[in-house]
Amino acid sequence: QSISPFCSLTPEVKYSPPWQDLSIIGIAGSSGSGKTSVAMEIVKSLNLPWVVILVMDSFYKTLSPDEHRKAHANAYDFDCPDSIDFDLLVETLRDLKKGKKAQIPIYSFAEHQRQPQTTTLYSPRVLILEGILALHDPRIAELLDVKIFVEADMDVCLGRRVLRDVKERGRDIEGIIKQWFAFVKPSYTRFVEPQRGISDIIIPRGIENTTAIDMVVKHIQRKLQEKSEKHTEELHKLGLIAAKV
Ligand code: C5P
Predict the structure, then answer these.
(1) Pocket of ligand 1, candidates 36, 38, 63, 78: which has the most ligand atoms within 8 Å of its Cβ, to mutate?
(2) Fewest CB atoms within 10 A around its CB: which of 22, 56, 89, 106?
(3) CB-ligand 1 contact for 77 (6 Å cutoff)
(4) Ligand 1 atom at minimal distance to the Cα of residue 60
(5) Mutation test of ligand 1: which of 27, 30, 31 has the most ligand atoms closer than 8 Å to its C-beta?
(6) Distance 215 CA to ligand 1 centre (A)
(7) How high is the ipTM of this complex?
(8) 3-state helix, strand, coil in the chain (%, to 5)
(9) Which atom belonging to ligand 1 lies closest to the Cα atom of 113?
(10) How far apart are CA 81 and CA 197, in angstroms?
């Protein structure tokens, strides 16, 4: 295939280069369902350059002093959609879709707040957005190429959460259990579980389900292939590459 880089386009012809064609995969599911492990397995299996995981936890809202006190007493609801800065997340995803770089907040679970520093993220080829409410906001759902819901037994989720929150998030068991029954479980029923309805793929038993993860990877690969073929077709139509011989 020959490429003619100097071919000029007429103003009405729109050409979007591949680096503006970021694919976004959303992974939702209960806390402790194994979303992160599934996301990491997808990255490993896709084995492509420029695949990035964006964790929605980076987008928790800044708390007022009173909310802060509640958070430290495990009496703040971090599981309802109001706790997440969806506007900032939408803006970030839209920027990345346009091929721009974005500043990603760094979140501290021990302090319940964003750190002063941010991480610079350059628009990747594939972005995996992972979070309990990754499919919740319609503006985000619209940007997603594949919507995944990870399912797991709620007892398993609680067990995993206790271990993780003690080891990694500086929490005590009593507080974890209090928060689980006051906020995490009710919000699961109200906001998290309904996302199953708009998901393309449901992964039962999370990371243990290698067959389902395999299918997900194949589905994503097919989607990327379709996009790439569409892109080549677009280039043919615009006369930017010669027809195949
Ligand atoms: O990683 P995971 O999906 O479990 O993270 C989401 C969970 O983090 C939510 O269920 C929420 O209760 C919890 N969270 C927390 N403290 C914060 C922010 C979120 O316990 N400061």
Answers:
(1) 78
(2) 106
(3) no
(4) 18
(5) 31
(6) 28
(7) 0.99
(8) 50, 20, 35
(9) 21
(10) 17
pLDDT of residue 6: 37
Q: Pick the closest to residue 148 from 77, 202, 193 (CA basis).
A: 202
- Ligand 1: distance of its center to the CA of 78 in Å? 6
pLDDT digits (tens, 9 = 90+) for 143-168: 999 999 999 999 999 999 999 999 99
In Å, how far from its chain's centre is CA 136? 11
- Angle, CA of 8, 23 and 27, to the nearest 5°: 170
Short-list 39, 31, 36, 55, CA closest to 162: 31
Say what percent of the chain tops pLDDT 70.
91
Residue-wise pLDDT tens digits, 209-244: 999 999 989 988 888 888 888 888 888 888 887 765
What's at 176, amino acid-wise? I
Q: How far away, in angstroms, is 1 Cα from ligand 1 center? A: 50
Which among 77, 53, 49 is positioned nearest to 148, based on CA atoms? 53
Which is nearest to 151 in space by CA: 35, 232, 39? 35
Separation of CA 56 and ligand 1 centre (Å): 10
- For residue 85, the CA-to-ligand 1 centroid distance in Å is 14
The residue whose two tokens read 């990255």 is 43
Pairing of strands 23-29, 126-130: parallel
| Start-end of H helices in the chain | 35-46, 65-72, 86-97, 138-141, 154-168, 173-179, 185-187, 210-237
